[in-house]
Amino acid sequence: MFVSNLIFLAFFIIKGEVYEGWFEDKGDASGYSLSVGKFNEKNNTLSVNQTMVNPYTYTIFYVTAEPVDDTDPKPSDIIAAAELNVPFGQ
């Protein structure tokens, strides 16, 4: 079990969009994308506090720009991404 406490900062704001953070397992894994929530619109941060059973399957963290009233649960356009270091991706 793993408790994640992450804070991310968005440096740009586009009117009519909100930013959403995601974990994804790429490569030989399932390719599943897990939404970890939208960025706070007042201070452009994303705070994640989760207890995950198997977080190390995720290999990528990325941010998408989503329409404000988006009803589609899939990720939209990726605007930033970072590879997660070991022990992630194990």
Distance between the termini: 14 Å
Strand order of the largest sheet: 3-2-5-6
How can the largest sheet be summarized?
A: 4 strands, antiparallel
Series of H and E elements: EEEEEE
Radius of gyration: 13 Å
What would the average pLDDT be, to the nearest integer? 79
Supply the number of helical segments: 0
Number of domains: 1
Structural class from helices and strands? mainly beta
Number of DSSP E strands: 6
* Percent in helix: under 10%
Query: Which of globular, elongated, flat, extended, rod-shaped describes the shape?
Result: globular
How much strand? over 45%
Uncertain regions: pLDDT < 50 for 5+ in a row?
1-5
What does the model show?
By secondary structure, this protein is an all-beta fold. It has one domain (2-9, 17-83). The chain has no helices and 6 strands. It has strands spanning 2-9, 17-24, 33-38, 45-52, 60-67, 77-83. The strands form 2 sheets. Strands 3-2-5-6 form a 4-stranded antiparallel beta sheet, with no helix packed on it. β2 and β3 (33-38) form a beta hairpin. 12% of the residues are buried.
